[in-house]
Amino acid sequence: MQAVQFSTHGDRDVLEYGDFPDPEIDRDEVLIDVKAAALNYLDIWTRRGLPGIDLEMPHIPGSDAAGVVEAVGEDVTRFEAGDRVSVLAGKSGGDDEFTRKGDPTLAPDFHIIGEHVRGVHSEYAAVPAANLAPVPEGVDWETAAAAPLVFQTAWRMLRDRGGLQAGEKVLVLGASGGVGHAAVQIADLAGAEVFATASSEEKLGYAEEIGADHTIDYEETDFASEIREMTDGRGVDMVVDHVGAQTWQSSLESLVKGGRVVTCGATTGGTPETDLNRIFWNQLSVIGSTMATPGQAEEVLELVWDGTLEPRIRETFPMSEIASAHEMLENREGFGKVVVVPDSEL
Ligand SMILES: NC(=O)c1ccc[n+]([C@@H]2O[C@H](COP(=O)([O-])OP(=O)(O)OC[C@H]3O[C@@H](n4cnc5c(N)ncnc54)[C@H](OP(=O)(O)O)[C@@H]3O)[C@@H](O)[C@H]2O)c1
User: Fold this and answer.
1) Pocket of ligand 1 (CB under 6 A)
2) Ligand 1 pocket: which of 267, 268, 293 to mutate (most atoms <8 Å of CB)?
3) With the C-alpha atoms ordered 24, 29, 34, 37, is the resulting torsion angle positive or negative?
């Protein structure tokens, strides 16, 4: 088969699209004929190399894909050839207390397809049946590939970890990105008043289209001061931050007393200065969140499949142009998700 791959970590020039041995399925796995796949910022981290993760080379990156079941392993009963499926990349194989309690994201062996093990930016992929969600007829392949990782992440962040309530004020940073644009839609659906930041007027216009009530260009202005002004000095109840070092202090400054910041990422760096005085005096909560349980993922995907929530597609590239797809994310171009399609499907 043809697959995106790299043999050493590095810049975009380490990426290749070429021959790779066909995947073989284990008893609990499903072979998927990939129709579309999507990028996440994680693909950039994985390509550059993450501390403590020693990948088997060559590595196939990619955590999001959708396609048709080609074959199933002997133990698989949930799927059969011809079914339409999306990949849920969070994986825990262990029989530990967390997995038994229904939250594999907390399991010691929790890992992510594409980050820790070979991923799905390829013509075919072997994926455990437990890591697949059914996709109804009528949902297009781009949507089925683009939605799973970021919508499950934002769903757990806002609803399960953040406890978002209708009527609350929520600030979503980086609203043009995958997680950001999912968070804006989920906050709007929950009945929150949504404040959104992005780095251009055009992106802010899109953020309004998908549910933001107020927008701030955080490249042009200090967003914490803007938030104070927009809320008559009060601040917001929740900040959704995946940008990291560059925004962290202003995120804390944007919160009302008793407010909470939920973080799932640190694109601009993971070791920001933090003002502990502000955290204890204002009784702020700092909440981490990663991926979601299969149940949470399927809950939010139902809302994508019925059109309530919608991944916006920035651009679709043939997989052979994977370097241009990575470049789009690294250069902060566009709004929503970048999709790649096996060249043989075009
Ligand atoms: N823990 C988890 O489970 C989990 C899950 C998903 C993602 N994440 C993390 O969350 C972060 C966002 O992921 P994503 O897939 O949504 O990424 P993405 O689609 O590339 O979006 C990132 C957004 O952040 C903003 N940004 C600000 N400074 C940036 C910079 N220096 N470089 C790139 N973008 C910058 C950009 O919006 P503007 O140009 O409008 O500012 C961009 O649209 C990543 O760090 C990722 O690893 C974590």
Assistant:
1) 40-42, 45, 149-150, 153, 174, 176-180, 198-199, 203, 242-243, 264-268, 290-291, 329, 332
2) 267
3) negative
Q: What would the two tokens of residue 153 be? A: 């992440």
Ligand 1 geometric centre to CA of 281 (Å): 30
The number of residues in the chain equals: 346
pLDDT for residue 42 is more than 70: yes
**What superfamily would CATH give domain 151-288?**
NAD(P)-binding Rossmann-like Domain (3.40.50.720)
Nearest residue to 192 via CA among 218, 166, 174: 166
Nearest CA to ligand 1 atom 43: 177
CATH superfamily, with its number, for domain 2-147+311-345: Medium-chain alcohol dehydrogenases, catalytic domain (3.90.180.10)
CB 87 within 8 A of CB 120: yes
Nearest protein CA to atom 42 of ligand 1, as residue = 177
Q: What is the pTM of this model?
A: 0.98
Residue 36's pLDDT is 98
Residue labelled with tokens 């693909």 = 43
Helix or strand run (H / E) with residue 143 = helix 141-146
Beta partners for residue 122, in sequence order: 3
Q: Average the pLDDT over each of 91-95, 176-180, 252-256 and give the range with the smallest value.
A: 91-95
Q: Given this model, what pLDDT does residue 114 score?
A: 98
Locate 303 and state its tokens.
């809302």
CA distance 321 to 112: 24
Taking alpha carbons only, the member of 267, 299, 300 closest to residue 151 is 300
Nearest by Cα to 178 from 325, 59, 302: 325
Atom nearest to 267 CA in ligand 1: 45
